[in-house]
Amino acid sequence: MSRGTWFEGDRGVSEVVGVVLLIGVTALLVGGVGVYLFQYGGSLQEAGPSFSSSTVYNDSATGDGQTLRITHESGDPVPTDEVELRIQDATTERGTPLAYGGNALERQVGESFTASETLVLDRTAFTTRSGSPVTGSQHLDLGEAAVRIVWTTENGKRSEIIYEWTGPDRTGA
Q: Could you tell me which InterPro entries the record lists for this protein (predicted)?
C-alpha cells in the first residue's frame, strides 16, 4: 500500500465520528436528567396546602387576657390531622410559663380548617406546666409568644410552616 491510497477513502470518517459523539453526549445528558428526576422528583411534587390568613391580636390586660384570632381567609381546606399547632413562650401576666393544651384547633374547627373558619387562642387553650388549667385570676400574655401551624406529609418526610405569627415583644427565634 502506498501512502496516497491509504488516505484517499478517509474523508467521510470525521463526519461519522462527530455524529456518533454528538449522539453519545446527548444520551448521557438525557440519562443524567432522568436519574436526577427519579431520585429527587418525587419530593418536589408534594406541596403543602395553600393557606391565606388574617390575624387579630387583642393585647388586653384585663378579663381573660390576650387573645389571638387566626382566620383562614382562602386556600385549600387543611386537614387537622395533617397539621400541628405549635406555640412557644406563652405566659401568664406574671410570667408563669404556659403549655399549649394541644386540642384547640381540632376542638374549634373539626376535621378540616376551611376558608372563613376562625381559630381563637385564649387562656382556655393553655395549661400550666404542671397540667392545671389556667384559672380565671390568671391572664394570658402572648406578647413574647410564637405561633406556627406546621403541615407534615403523610409519610412524615417533609414539613412546611403554613402559618406563623410572633408576638410584638418577642426577640430572637
A: Flagellin/pilin_N_arc (IPR013373), Pilin_N_archaeal (IPR012859)
